[in-house]
Amino acid sequence: APSRVEVFDVPNQNSLEELQMNRTRLLKSAGFAVIGIVAFVSSAWAEYNDYGTNKPSAFRDHQQTMIWDSELLAALSGFQGELMFCTGSCFSGGFVDDLTQLPKAVVVTANTWHGFGMSLYDFLSGTSYTYAFHDAYMEAFQWGGAGFAPTFEEAYLAARDTVNTTLGQQWSWGGIEFPQFGVTGSTKDGTLEYSAGDRAILFSGMWAGNEYYLTSWDYTIAGGRDMLMNDYGWDGDAVTTLFSDGAVPPGRSGPWLTGEGTKANLIAAFQNAAATLGPGNTLVVFVIAHGRSSGVMTSRLMPDRQTIEYLLIPNGRNIANDGATYPKASYGCTEIQINGLSDGDPSHYALELPDTLNGWGWTLDPVKGVLTIQADDPADQSKWLVPGLEYHIRLKYYRSLADVELGRGGWQMWIPEGGGGPLFSMDHGLPGGGWVGNRGRWMGARSRAGHSRSDRQ
Fold first, then answer.
1. What is the 3-state composition of the chain as percent helix, strand, coil, each rounded to the nearest 5?
2. Is 428 exposed, middle or buried (0-12, 13-18, 19+ CB in 10 A)?
């Protein structure tokens, strides 16, 4: 079994102790669910998902397909070697708790599981350089061969704590992003020095036209390969390079490029490494891609058996969609839907919203069985949900609920373009069951007066 996981420099986060108290696990032999939607009967039972420990994180490939932390862990099933994994994605901290389930692993992320990534371009006005913590971490490994090669931990600390001066301003990545360092075993003392049988995977999910497209090639793909080969003696055949759509950027050279930066290719590379690397080998992975983790929404039945308490933790105030339909803009979540209610009488429900949702109200569609919680003015950014903040919402039914009435409905979070524009779905899932999928963009006009969501794909 893996040794105790150490996680360094994790900022204080809101506790989930309230939801952990008196919770009941599902799928017991008696078999009843304590999560779900009022009066919604379903055969799809789910175990309570404790997001205090199970932090879902993902990054996107160039086709915008989500690659989840749990999927990468599953792809490494049977892996016997030592892992060094780094990603510069937003919302990436959840990779720490998953990949450090391996007995020998170092996992470095640029952020917490609900934290945004930043580059010089993002936080220093007047700059256009998209250099970020991930790039600084890779740069910290540069080694001329004199003395000792930097360890994984030494490179992390150097990238995080080095004070830089740009345009007269002093700063460090530890004060801009929220870098995380998780480790099991003695892996923190490992280095990038090559041994026969080692493998490296360099992955970019940036698509052509994205502002990080060329940076990801220069630093992560071409730069990472050059560093491994020139500084640490790696065999070129041991380095798998997966970049964007599989085409070398204009003005660059890369006849050695392995293939596209797709989910399928990355999963296959992980599976191949798990099948071929022995106990004495190291798998080095550097990933640069836009990150997403789902907004968290889970629930529990309170002791009175009338009240369901929902825990909502949004994790994004803005999402970059670089495309013709939705150009890059800021988005704020202004609407939440809870569906699967079979009782359509609004008088049978009472909804208690926290003070942090002041300026929000709710309606119930008796035909669709959908309860909608929404901001009165979606253009008012002060009413947008705050990333990482916990929102406790209580829905009270007019009577006690029998076991058979509790199942698993769904939820969705809707975001207006730029505040007040047409809605599209950010995340949807099943309370208690975790994230299900990322919905595509919806092209339609918003109606404040109960517009049907049935046409949103």
1. 20, 25, 55
2. buried
Which of residues 367 and 220 earns the better pLDDT score? 220
Calpha distance 405→42 (Å, rounded): 8
SS3 category, 403: helix
> 306 or 12: which carries more pLDDT confidence?
306
Q: How far is Cα 96 from Cα 109, in angstroms, rounded to an integer?
A: 7
Residue 298 carries which DSSP code? Answer: E
| DSSP-derived 3-state class of residue 218 | helix
Provide the pairing of β-strand 180-184 with 282-288: unpaired
Q: Which two tokens stand for residue 244?
A: 């964007």
d(CA 277, CA 307): 52
C-alpha–C-alpha distance, residues 134 and 179, integer Å:
9
**Residues forming a β-bridge with 393:** 310
Cα 62 from chain centre: 16
Tell me what percent of the residues of the chain surpass a pLDDT of 70.
68
* Verdict on whether the full-model pTM lies above 0.90: no
Q: What is the largest CA-CA distance in the chain?
A: 76
